[in-house]
What does this fold into?
Amino acid sequence: MTTASHRPAPVGREELLARLERVVQSRGRALLTGPAGVGKTDVALAEAALAEARGETVLWLSTLPSDRDIPGAVAAALVASVAATVTWPGTASPAPEDGSTEAGPESGHGPGHGAESGPAAGSGSAPGSVGIPGQARGAHLGHGGHNGAPAQPPAYTGAGPLAVTASRIFDALPGPQRTAVAMLCREAPLQDGGWDPIALRLGIAQILRTLTARGPALLVVDGVQHIDADSADLLRFALHLAPPALRVVAVETPEAYDTEETYDTHLWVPSEADILLVPPLQADEIAELLIHHRLPSRMAGRIHKASGGNPRLALAVGRSLADARTPVHHAEALTLSGRARDLARQLLGAAPPAVRETLLLAALALRPSATLIRRAGRPNAEADLAAAERAGLVSLSEDGTVTFTAGLLPSTLVHDACWAERSAGHAALAEVVDDPVEAVRHRALATDVPDETLAAEVAAAADLARRRGNSALAAELALLAAESTPVQQGTQRISRLVDAAEEAARAARADLAMRAATDLLARDAAPTDRVRARLAVLDTAGQGLTGLDDMYVHAMEDSEGHTALRAAVQLRLAVKYVLADGDPLRSRAAAVESAALAASMGDPRTATQALTVQARMDRALGVPDAESILAQARALELAERPLGIRNAAQILTIRHALFDDRLADARDQIQALLPLVQRRGSVEDRIELYHTLSAVESRIGACASALAHAGRSLALTLEAGLSPGPAWYTLALAETAGGSFGRAASYARRSVQASEEEGDRVFLSRSLYALGRVQLVNGDVASALETLRRVQADERAQSTVDPSMLRWHEELAEALLATDAAEEAVALLDEVRPVAERLGRTTVLLGCDRAYALSLAAAGKTDEAADLLTVTADRFGEAGLPLERGRALIALARVERRRRRRSAAQGALQAAASVFERAGAVPWLALTSETKAGEPGEDTLPALSSLTEAELRLARLVGQGASNQEAAAKLYLSVKTVEARLTRIYQKLDVRSRAQLATALRG
It folds into this structure.
């Protein structure tokens, strides 16, 4: 008997799968339920694979909608699946152990009386054919599936019914039962009275009981809502009599709307403990799903909104974006055509016409509720909405508020409705809404005739919405006012389009900004208006500035002769040069010019922003007066606007405190600013503050808080539809500090992918640094070296000088030491140390000291290394960097083991463990175990103390039987390097063969 390794849990379903496993094992029955496309079948497949991996018999039965109309269809498919499933260990074909006639590879066991009478398992003659999800109807996973996937069902060919003559399962049935089962499968003619219902019940029960004769079995019924009445009755009876060893998982998509059939399709009376609801995925899980399917993840937040967390819809939207002729930008509407729209139509198409009409009104309303829709002409609104809720299309709150479960649903309803339907709906809603702003909106949308009076009313409503603080509605109304303006009043229309673009920028509505700008740029607008519209689009682009070069070029052309606008364009160019082009020198030059132009025009806002960008670049380039430039920006910012509103200079001041490891100061400033930003600041400022606070807490050793604030940063990012790359980087840092090295690496890889998709050079370097660091700490030295070399190349290409902003030097030096490149590691440290000293980066020097101590140990100077690590650990503690102190102590323990000072090594590890435990640094705490289980430590094998870390890794691989080629591939080295290193190992250990090396390693 072979056993397949089970497939991993579907994305975001680890906890649900674990709960399903517990329910199946303890209760023997479980019902997976949820809306179509939510992933119920994937969870059931994972559970079936787990059972198969344990060596259990697994029977998969998949139903079709047409089964409801065919009496006994599902029961017949079950019999056919059993015939194909039951195998006896040690035989190559389905045959009992008593040596009776063996079946051919295309046969199935039947209840008839010979080779011509078995059920046609998999043939077209059975009411239900055999298969698995995505292939055919019902099949077995059986024993021996591969890679966690269900085993393929047997391939049956040829004409006429197929059978096996000696099936213990069917031949053991009493005659009446065998005859009834044969009638069910249409292998015996139906008698006038049909099959004997009692005999058939008992026969099906006996067949299922036999499944467990050799051990536990799992029956999965996918689509119980489609079971015909006769089969439902038969299966309920059979499962009632089944032994505990037969476990059942049923998969159900609840019927939302009334059907003519009134019978119960449940296979048992489910209790609350049996029912497991499969919920939608969270936004971060949708991002992981997209990455898993090799789809772009940079718009994960917007895809989550469009899909409502439904995996099938999310993948359809993701594939639409991936298949677009040109990359979809953040400032553009999502591509929701093709498969995505079709899936939405399928979900909506099941609703009766009356329900769809009610849902259309809900889609048109700003704040839909059952009461509002009823007043707008749908007297049965509550009943219609309740049916839609059962179908998973909407959710209803206690006060009757209606929320669509996926943004794709209302957009599809509106997209597919004709103009007359939309107009009538808006007109009806305009008469019953209780807010004048909403009433004006509906009146404007109910007509396609431009009208200046109406346009002026809409513009006034936009102003009112802005004063209320509803920036998103203000942006929509501003654009609607422009589109309602008659073409004869071209100047007024252009003015309103400019207002609409800028309003959209304030609301971070990239789609509306692009619509307004596209309309304006197609008209005869003045250069100043064209520049303002383009700047609005650029301001909503987030990290995705690549692909917008034309916007910058035309903005520069149109701003010629207009100093204030030229200052604004230069400011946006300064941001582009660093984010998209990775060129801080050009960025600084543009920022300096922008600040000067803005100051000459008395524009403190633009001057503040430009000076802030200049200060950022000065810091990266190692310019000494970076702090004085930042102080100028901070003074202008405080004078120009109240605290809490667009505080770029203040936030950069906090970032500089983080870079300098003035962590208490940074945290105090954030905690003072955050409440104000939460009340009146932009979402970008809130995200940046949470990002910075998490980074501060990761460094300061408040690991639980770091994880919480990193999670909040990601949630806000995805909710705003921004690129998740920066937020994933923050989570990678927080997970490295106090979560899991595995999750940290996963988030770092996601951030790398998103940053590459966006063309964001800044966060690409940061994400690679986070990935390389966790790879190094986790022992994947070869991968760490490759990743950190990329960081080195990127940072040098960007002319970054200040080593405190991204501390890759010490990490790369350690990776080089671990791969026996000591000279290069020392050269790197010698290169960065004078720069850190000149700039006063004290804690950067401590990191260099830790790496340099490791180089001393690699050179055999273990006494000097231990002394330096002891001092470095103490100084990290004095600097308020507990995790860095603990890391230095772990390094000290390794050196002490090489010095064969077991007590000192143990003391260093205990001190490190105490540090990590107080900080909540869970993954670091795990590193403080003195040696891995089953691995001899260097202190117990004195000869090994002469080997470097790189040599020890190679020695263990070769000692375990790896060839030179295999070791080279594993360690990402050339074969020649392995041979040279192995020669040194032989000399140090005084051995002459691999066998002697293995003996030396065992002690």
Remarks:
- Residues 1-6, 87-167, 930-940 have pLDDT under 50 and may be disordered.
